[in-house]
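Annex B, item 7. Sequence and C-alpha cells for protein A, then protein B.
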Amino acid sequence: MTGVMAVMLFLTVLAAAAGLATRNATAQLDRQLAGRLTVQIVDGEPARRDAAAARVLAALRGLPEVRRVVAVDRAELARLLRPWLGSDGADPELPVPALIDVDLADPGDATAAQVAGIARRASPLAQVDRHERWMSPVGDFMRSLTWLAGTLVLLMASAAAAVAVLAARAGLETHRATIEVMHMLGSTDVQVARLFQRRVAIDAAIGGAVGGTAAAAVAWLIGGRIAGLGSELLGGATLGAGDWLLLVILPLAFVAVATLAARRTVVAALRRTL
C-alpha cells in the first residue's frame, strides 16, 4: 500500500499543481485583457491614415472612460511583423495599418461599446478590436484544463479510499483467526478497527510523504523552466504561497481519507461477520 499511495500522491500533487498554475495563468490573462481595445486605421494612403489616427487619438484622450491611449510606433509594428515578413516589415512603403492601444477605466461592455463608437465617429476608417473577445477561446480552454485537473484530484482521492478499503479487507481475511481470539479475550470491534486504522494511516503517511515530496520537486523545477521562457502567457502559470500550502495539505487530506475509509470498512465487516 505504501508504494501505491506514493505513486497516487505523486500524480495527484502534479495534477493539483498544474490546475493551480493554469488557474493563475487564466486569472492573469483575464486581468491583462479586461478593458483593452486596439483601434486600427486601415488606409493605403499614409497621409490620410496618419490624419485619421491623429483624430482618433485626440477624440479618445479626453474621455474619462479611457485610462490610457497610445499610438503604436512604426518600429514596434515592424518588430511584430518580423516573424512573417522579415526585414520587409520595416519598409516605409509597406501599407501597414496605424494601431492605437486603449486601456479603459471600466472594463464593462457598455464602456467598450461607447469608446468604440466615439473612435468610429472620429474616423470612419477606424476598426476596433476588443482583446477580451478574440482571446476568449484561449481563456475557456485554460479554464477547462483547470476543471480537468480538479476532476483528476477527486478521482485519485476516490482511488486512495478504494485502496485503503481493499487493504483493510485483505488484512481482515489474513488475521481472521487472531481477531476471533481477541474478541474472546474481550476486545471490541472499535479496538480492533483502531489497529487496522493505525496501520493504514502509517502506510498512507509514508507513501504520501514520498510521493508528495517528489511531485513538489518536479513542480518547482517545471515552474523554474516556465519562468525562464519569458512568455507573457506562460509567465502567469506560477504557484503562489497559498498554492504551495494547498499542495502541502493535499497529502494530509489523502491520509485522512484513507484512514477513515479503512476504519469504516473494518467496523462494518466486524459487525457483519464476527
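Protein B:
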Amino acid sequence: MSNDTTPHRHGPGCSHDHGHDARDTGVAGIALPDDAASPILVEVTRGNMVESIHRGRAAVVHASGTVEAGWGDRSSLIYPRSANKSLQALPLVETGAADAFQLSDAELALACASHSGEPMHTERVAAWLNRIGLSEADLECGSHTPYNVAAWEAMLKRGETSTQLHNNCSGKHSGMLTTALHRGEPTKGYVGYQHPVQQRIMGTIEQVTGQDLSNAPWGVDGCSIPTIGIPLEALAFGMARMADPVDLPDRRAEAAKRLTAAWGRHPEMVGGTGTFDTTFMEMVKGHILVKAGAEGVCCVVVPEAGIGIAVKIDDGASRAAGPAAAAILRKLGLLSDAEWEALLPLVQPGIPNRKGFDCGVLRAAF
C-alpha cells in the first residue's frame, strides 16, 4: 500500500476493480483491446500506397475531470513507462528536497527527463550527485550506451565505456536519491516497490490521477523502478492537473508549477539534440510540454488550456506516438497554423531510403 494520505479525487477512469474484459494476454490485470476498440491513429505510406498502420488509443482530459475527446478504449490499463516522469518527480519538490539541495531548474527538468546521454546531461547529473555526497555508483538504473549517436561515437573514439550516468533515466534516479537523503531513508534499494521512495511516488500518483493503485498490476521498468498499470484517461487526467494544479493540495500544486516551468525552460534536458520531445518543445517555445515513454506512450501538458493528453500506440511503436499526439493538438486548435507548418518535418516525417530520398511519409490517419 502507498503511504500518501491525501484524499483522492476520483477523476476519469477511476475504479477499484482493475479487471477488464478484453483479449486475454495471459498476464493478470493487463488487457489489450481488440482492433474494434483501437482506431488507426497513424499510417505509413510508400509511393501512393499505405504500407503500414499503427492502431492506438488517446484521451484528452481537462483539469476539471471532463473528458474532452477520445479515441478507442480509454479505460484499459496501460503502463505509463517514462511518460509520467513529471508525476514521479513531484515528491522531489514537495518534500523540500529540491530546496534543501538547491536544485536548479535544469536539474528539475532532468528529474523529468529521458535524456539522450550527451555531455550536457551526464556532466550535470554527475555534478548533482557529487553535490549531495553521492556518485554514479549509488544509482541503481543500470547503464546503456547514449541514445545520441554523436555522443556515443565520441566516447568510442576516446575509448570510454558507458556508465549509469548515460542511462536516460539517471536524472530521475538522482531525484529519487535526493529525496531519500532529505527524508533520512536508505539510499540502497531505493528502486524497490516497497521502498519509501517508491511508495511515496505511488501515493502521489494515486492522488493526482484519482486512482486507487494499491491492487493495480505492476512491473519493473527498464530502469528498474516499478511501473504501475493505470487507465489511459486517468493518466491524461494526471497530466491535466499538472497543466492546471489549482485543485491539488497547496504544496503539491506548487511542486507541479515548478516542474512544468522547468520542463518548459529546459527542453534540451528533457530529451536531447534532435529528439522529438526537445525539438517539439523548442519549436512551440515551451507553451506545450510533451514527454514520450517506451512502448508507444506519449503524454502532453497544455498549461494555457488546463488540458492533458495521453496516447498509447497498441503495437508499442515509438515512432507513431508523438505524431499522433501532435495531430490531436492540431485537431483541438491548440497548435496555430504557423506552428503546424513549422512542425511538419517533425510530426509528418518522410520515410527515407538509403540514399536519403523520401519514399513515403508517416502521418496521422485522422
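Comment on protein B: The CA atoms of residues 240 and 308 lie 4 Å apart.
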